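2024-03-11 09:14:02 INFO receiving multi-entity request
2024-03-11 09:14:02 INFO entity count = two
2024-03-11 09:14:03 INFO echoing inputs for audit
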Amino acid sequence: MAAHDPPLATADPETGTGLYCYGVVWARAAVDQSEGVAGAPVEAIRSGDLAALVSPVQVRKMRARRADLLKHLDVLTAALADGAVLPFRFGTTFADEDDLVGRLLDARRDELISLLKEFDGLVELSVKAFFRGDAVLTEIVRENPRIARLRTQTSQGPEAATYGQRIELGELVAAELASRSAAEADQILQRLRPLARKVDIDTEPVEHQVLRAAFLVERGGLEAFDAAMDALAREREGRIDFKYLGPIPPHSFVALEAR
Amino acid sequence: MAIATQGTASNYLQRAPSPSGLADVVDLILDKGLVIDAYVRIAVIGIELITIDARIVIASVDTYLRFAEAVNRLDLTQTEAAGLAELRGDDGGGGNGKGQGMLEGAKEKFSGGAEKAKDTAQGD
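2024-03-11 09:21:47 INFO inference complete, emitting structure
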């Protein structure tokens, strides 16, 4: 790749073609698929016990389209039915087969094999929980006299006159939301942690979000996890909404040592 | 993506096999998964903006004013009964008013960002 082309992915410098890499699987479990990113077929490139799932793409022309993002995960999730999958982040490409084998499968062979063994039989489940807006705000107003009082005060009179009070009200509500969210997240995690090998909690705040976490779970433990999620959602009906996704490959748990 | 539905008694919350929206995929595959150093990824500039859009900064004056407005908009009389039940410690799952204006607002912002990024990303 030309040194003056930093924003472009690895590709053959003359043709601009490359291999888009979805992830790494056991060679014996690698299965071709008919459609991946950019409409290209998904093929397995094998080296010893390892295989990379790839699609031939015109790297220079490729853009991250919505359909391609969804395809990336679809391809990996489909592969998960055949065995352990080490998922790559979206957008990783290699110039050609030699480049891929040389710099990935051969160069990182021991690490990849040990990761495949480590994640054998394990899948990721994604859980997101959100406060339902008005329900939680109603709770907050009812249970906080100071907030209730400020609410009454700011609901009358011109906006300009209540600016300071409205800021104070909003600040108090934000603080309440944060502490309620933390308390709910603790309760949810207490129930789910014992059912998972590992938990990865995303702490970047999102408004009204109670929890965003990934759970590494044994395939055999899916049913128990489903039951726990179902119970959690029922108990919080009307107050907290859940998004529950999986099983997907262990995106949140795989990593290669930096070199 | 499957969200809690008032469905059958056996399954209240369904696990979704695949994400329904771009936002959920972005969380998973742009920030997470294996990376090999020295490999530059293809251009995902438009898409990365979504995650930033979606993560509203909580501690700002604008946010406070928005919260204040949302609290002022609440119609507490509509949820009186359920609210009282909650105060008594009933675990009847009540407490939900009909509206959910604030969350919908956030969702709109979210999907709006996704649409924008989609448009950017699809321009060939």
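2024-03-11 09:21:48 INFO post-check: The two ends of chain B are 28 Å apart (CA to CA).
2024-03-11 09:21:48 INFO post-check: The longest helix of chain B spans residues 101-122.
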